[in-house]
Amino acid sequence: MTVKFGVVGTGAIGREHINRITNSLSGGKIVAVTDVNQDSAKQTVEQYQLDAVVYPNDLALIADENVDVVVVTSWGPAHEATVLAAVEAGKYVFCEKPLATTAEGCLRIVEAEMKQGKKLVQVGFMRRYDSGYVQLKEAIDKGEIGQPLMVRAVHRNPEVGESYVTEMAVVDTLIHEIDALHWLVNDDYKSVQVVFPRKTKYAHDKVQDPQLFTIETNSGIVMNVEVFVNCKYGYDIQCEVIGEDGVVYLPEFPSVVTRKNGKLSSGILQDWKYRFMDAYDVEIQDFIDSVVKKGEPQGPTSWDGYIAAVTADACVKAQKTGEKESISLQEKPAFYSGNAVCETL
Ligand SMILES: NC(=O)c1ccc[n+]([C@@H]2O[C@H](COP(=O)([O-])OP(=O)(O)OC[C@H]3O[C@@H](n4cnc5c(N)ncnc54)[C@H](O)[C@@H]3O)[C@@H](O)[C@H]2O)c1
Ligand SMILES: O[C@H]1[C@H](O)[C@@H](O)[C@H](O)[C@@H](O)[C@H]1O
């Protein structure tokens, strides 16, 4: 069976996903695209030589009976309406983060999905498919470091544009750690506090940079996460989990090591697109395979999208107050029981 995809939003990541479904992965085909910028949608069809219909909007694309899965890669604020319409039409959805920009919006999607009686939605938290994170999780789950006590994580981008404001350090950047860290240690978040160190001279007026988040979990694990989006030297993701019996580290992204002119050196990536390239491939292939073989996606769920939204809200509040802000989730419905893990790795 070939899974037929309709893509809403043919910008940067929309095209990346179209390219991988068309040229790298198996079992999927792009049959429809749309974008508020219709020229972008048309150019995408030409660029990847797709046999796909260009629709004027998301609702028309969702109504196409030929579309099995709706890929949502539009701007964040547009996600909720498209996801809800697709779920209500009984279609599968692969939605890039954020699932919705508010916790209430995520809950509306959760309710609509539960009404359909099966999981239809996967959120694009691709770190759960990164081999380094999967190795960290396996080590923790096997008890190799005993009970986790602390986490130290770093999320650095070389630079950000003028449109990137302080809040985006949470909703655009930290959001990846928000999803990955609770999954890694099998715990829920309890509180968050934010500290702003001295501001780098490379940050523009509307962004406070760097930022330090201290997140505490229900069992008392303390996570220190640095977001530094004008670090200049490259794209750098680090994660270290400190347990009672040992410490596990996220492996460095592999790079050739050079010995030359009295120096030992290796490169650092400059762009996020390359850091998780393999993870994106595994993520979407797993989505296709799960839909075909199990009838439901098995990756991060709408409930994970809700957890991320609630946590992000508390982080943004903490940015403003400087106080420790609580993170409080509704009770998890049995429908979402289990911990979405990639079984294929
Ligand atoms: N998982 C990841 O690592 C990752 C990486 C990058 C982006 N993202 C997420 O993916 C989404 C897209 O990001 P991007 O970098 O591709 O942005 P982008 O601006 O390059 O592309 C977004 C596209 O969506 C279109 N669009 C906006 N609203 C629309 C609507 N209502 N209907 C149809 N089209 C619409 C825009 O015209 C644009 O072409 C964002 O939510 C972003 O947070 C995730
Ligand atoms: O800070 C960036 C992250 O490092 C990337 O992984 C993307 O999510 C991008 O949208 C963010 O701006």
UniProtKB/TrEMBL annotation:
It catalyses: myo-inositol + NAD(+) = scyllo-inosose + NADH + H(+); 1D-chiro-inositol + NAD(+) = scyllo-inosine + NADH + H(+). Residues 137-323 form the Gfo/Idh/MocA-like oxidoreductase C-terminal domain. Transmembrane segments: none annotated. Its EC number is 1.1.1.18, 1.1.1.369. The keyword Ribonucleoprotein does not apply. Involved in the oxidation of myo-inositol (MI) and D-chiro-inositol (DCI) to 2-keto-myo-inositol (2KMI or 2-inosose) and 1-keto-D-chiro-inositol (1KDCI), respectively. This is Inositol 2-dehydrogenase/D-chiro-inositol 3-dehydrogenase.
